[in-house]
Amino acid sequence: MVPIEEGNQENSKLPFNDSFFDLIINRHDFYDSKEIFRILKPNGHFVTQQVGNRDFEKLNTIFGTLIEEDEQFKWKLNTAVKFLINSGLEIIEKKESIANSRFYDIRAIVYFLKVLDWSFPNFSIKKDLSKLENIYVLIKRDGFFKEICHRFFVVARKPGNDV
User: Does 48 map to a domain?
Assistant: First the structure.
């Protein structure tokens, strides 16, 4: 694994020679499409699974961590595909899922918010108690708190000399 500083991925040349890898796998992390193209061998594959911009948007709205972006920059399947194609890669397979996720008790939500401290950096039970109480009321009324889970994957290939 080669760490890339968030927000700096488009300016970070990876420490690998051109056409170095047959396969690159990325899960939930930043990447630069042009660098992926550069370090893949001809006919090499790039596989990535990403978290889309709509992931947990209700909780992000409630706790003030929702990031408003222009439509063209929202991180979703079409955006990732556009960047990969523009870098010279061919799309082999792609799929996006926007599914429902449910929380059945408030403790699960508190645990989730504490564990995902990069998404909810200022969360505290004391400070956010009224927000948690409102969610608790919804759980008692409906039996669960419904949230959105947004994921997508892309398999891309660097064109090469097919034998």
Answer: yes
